[in-house]
Design goal:
It is a single chain. The chain has 17 helices and no strands. With 374 residues, the protein is mainly alpha-helical. Helix 3 runs antiparallel to helix 5, helix 14 packs across helix 16 and helix 14 crosses helix 17.
């Protein structure tokens, strides 16, 4: 009768494999060698195979440890369902499970009694001599055996210890995530922390500005608007969406808040936290021709542009987009001067930095220009 080798990908199987690995002992190890009557060659071959499985387990264990350090405190990840269901978890540790299956199956009895009709075939890791039953060890200890046997025992001991550690971490993560899902306050804290970090990225991502008119609707934002409370929303959607989807929701929230204050989508993204400054910038642009703005050969004065950009108070990575916004608005309001290219503006900005002129001084200089025409 053959053993059943298909492992159901669930939490129960995870725990059974851990318990099987914890049952490994010298008595069962020696009994399995006797019952299987392995030759020295077969012992050496099994030792090499287990070493190969061990290296694969080590790689998976390192990846799991690194992932576990941030997974629970991240509201959205690229592997949301990794620990939510044991099935996804088993897929992540395929080499670990495969190695355990091969080693344990090779230490099952060669023959087994046929089960009564209708009774399920036993799983291999519940029948292995290594992990099931009590067996007395050798009277003289493992040291009385040849080197190949001692080496196989040492390798197996390390192997099962690694399985216990790896699968134990997996199970702790499953339990921890389950506990977090039941704690609305903790979910909300994780949500707020994650959103704060992502907003720093959103504020620096000028590509949102380039495609602001094409932003799709966000399913996550709809769920937030329809939720009973912010806590309920945070609990129900923990590890349900990717960082990209959460960023998209944050962008749409920024745009909608700006629209409520009369800003365009582009203005809302340039000044997500200072709508009054956005409105002030909008009102100042038509006044440029009154500020002695003409530079060389009928072009806009480069110094004035640099002062204006610093006075606007936007993220430095968005300054190029801010300048494009300014050029377009200036022309729409009938501005007569020729605009400089961004390369020229960047060079002037670099020169100012080399002269150690601070952003505060530049902004203050533009403020004085405004006061002169008021």
């Amino acid at each position: 009768m053959r053993y059943r080798t298909i492992v159901e990908k669930n939490e129960s199987s995870l725990l059974q494999i851990i318990r099987a690995a914890e049952s490994f002992n010298a008595g069962g190890f020696l009994e399995s060698l006797r019952m299987r009557n392995l030759s020295t060659y077969e012992i050496d071959q099994l030792t090499d195979e287990i070493k190969e499985y061990q290296s694969k387990i080590n790689r998976e264990a390192r990846a799991l440890v690194k992932f576990s350090e941030t997974f629970l405190i991240s509201y959205a990840t690229e592997n949301n369902r990794c620990y939510e269901t044991a099935e996804q978890l088993f897929n992540r540790i395929r080499s670990t499970i495969s190695g355990a299956r091969k080693v344990l199956r090779k230490t099952c009895p060669r023959r087994m009694h046929r089960q009564p009709e209708g009774k399920e075939q036993p799983l291999f890791y519940l029948r292995s001599i290594l992990t099931v039953g009590s067996h007395t060890g050798d009277l003289f200890g493992m040291e009385s055996f040849e080197y190949s046997v001692q080496e196989l025992f040492r390798v197996m001991m390390n192997f099962f210890t690694s399985i216990i550690g790896t699968l134990g971490l997996c199970h702790r993560m499953i339990v921890s995530e389950r506990e977090i899902r039941q704690d609305a306050d903790r979910c909300l804290d994780i949500y707020n922390d994650t959103c704060a970090k992502l907003m720093e990225e959103v504020n620096q991502m000028s590509h949102w500005l380039g495609a602001v008119k094409q932003l799709p609707e966000s399913k996550l934002l709809k769920r937030k608007e329809q939720a009973r409370s912010e806590k309920a929303f945070a609990r129900d959607n923990y590890h349900q969406y990717t960082p990209a989807e959460l960023k998209q929701m944050l962008v749409l929230e920024v745009v909608r808040r700006g629209q409520n204050d009369g800003l365009t989508d582009e203005e809302a993204l340039l000044w997500p936290n200072d709508h009054q400054q956005a409105l002030r910038v909008r009102s100042v642009i038509p006044l440029f021709d009154q500020m002695d703005a003409e530079g060389l050969k009928g072009k806009m004065d480069s110094s004035l542009i640099i002062e204006f950009l610093k006075w606007c108070r936007v993220e430095s990575k968005l300054e190029k987009r801010l300048y494009q916004y300014f050029c377009k608005a200036y022309k729409e309001h009938g501005g007569q001067l020729q605009m400089l290219g961004w390369t020229s503006v960047s060079q002037v900005r670099k020169d100012r930095r080399e002269q150690q002129i601070s952003d505060e001084k530049l902004a203050a200089s533009f403020e004085r220009r405004l006061a002169e025409i008021a």
